[in-house]
Amino acid sequence: QKEVEQDPGPLSVPEGAIVSLNCTYSNSAFQYFMWYRQYSRKGPELLMYTYSSGNKEDGRFTAQVDKSSKYISLFIRDSQPSDSATYLCAIFTGGGNKLTFGTGTQLKVEL
Amino acid sequence: GAVVSQHPSWVICKSGTSVKIECRSLDFQATTMFWYRQFPKQSLMLMATSNEGSKATYEQGVEKDKFLINHASLTLSTLTVTSAHPEDSSFYICSARSPRTGNQPQHFGDGTRLSIL
């Protein structure tokens, strides 16, 4: 079993839709949860960062963490074509250096 | 703006050549930098952790003599792919974490696309 599981997609939605991206993880020691956005041939760009269960909102983006279920989500409201990218969840334990990434979900927002 | 700069962004070279990739932290000193490799449609895989002034820590399965890492200053780490072969063709990405921000997430460079002919 992989430490972090993420559906690779591709996921195609119409402009304006609400997008839900998800990851599950197996190691309960994970404490810090991140979502990165990666455009083609670019490095990952940090979108959201949280370390507790619950919701965290930033503009059109909401990150949700459920530690009891080992499940994290990223919601994108009013999706735009510019949101088309690969979204990677990343998790690590406190005090450690190693980020564990999901495989990434490829999202396409169509006009 | 970018806080981690990576150079070059794309390199094509012949098999057997050694290639050096640079990673710079632009507005902070990074005692630790990280090197990842990403194959098409796959996630980032950590290759090694680069420590300023000491030896790099390599992940299991990564050849130390193949992928030479030097972290000679607090703002620069280099990855040299020695005697590169076509199977080394990949997207190499570095990252760094500001020491001011403790467990805050890593900032990534824009990656280097390496193509070995």
Topology:
The complex is a heterodimer of chains A (111) and B (117).
Chain A: E1 4-6, E2 11-14, E3 19-25, E4 32-38, E5 45-50, E6 54-58, E7 61-66, E8 71-76, E9 85-92, E10 100-101, E11 105-110
Parallel strand pairs in A: 2-11
Antiparallel strand pairs in A: 1-3, 3-8, 4-5, 4-9, 6-7, 7-8, 9-10, 9-11
Chain B: E1 4-7, E2 10-13, E3 19-25, E4 32-38, E5 45-51, E6 57-58, E7 67-73, E8 76-81, E9 90-96, E10 107-108, E11 112-116
Parallel strand pairs in B: 2-11
Antiparallel strand pairs in B: 1-3, 3-8, 4-5, 4-9, 5-6, 7-8, 9-10, 9-11
CA-atom Rg of chain A in angstroms: 13 Å
**Estimated helix fraction of chain B:** under 10%
Q: Based on Cα principal axes, name the global outline of chain B.
A: globular
Characterize the main sheet of chain A. Answer: 6 strands, mixed
| Average pLDDT of chain B | 90
Describe the structure.
The complex is a heterodimer of chains A (111) and B (117). In chain A, 0% of the residues lie in helices and 54% in strands. Chain A is mainly beta and 111 residues long. In chain A, the strands form 2 sheets. In chain A, strands 2, 4, 5, 9, 10 and 11 form a 6-stranded mixed beta sheet that branches. A 5-stranded antiparallel beta sheet of chain A has the order 1-3-8-7-6, with no helix packed on it. Chain A has strands at 4-6, 11-14, 19-25, 32-38, 45-50, 54-58, 61-66, 71-76, 85-92, 100-101, 105-110. Chain B is mainly beta and 117 residues long. Chain B is globular. The termini of chain B are far apart. Classes of the chains: A mainly beta (111), B mainly beta (117). The interface between A and B is medium-sized, with 25 and 25 residues.
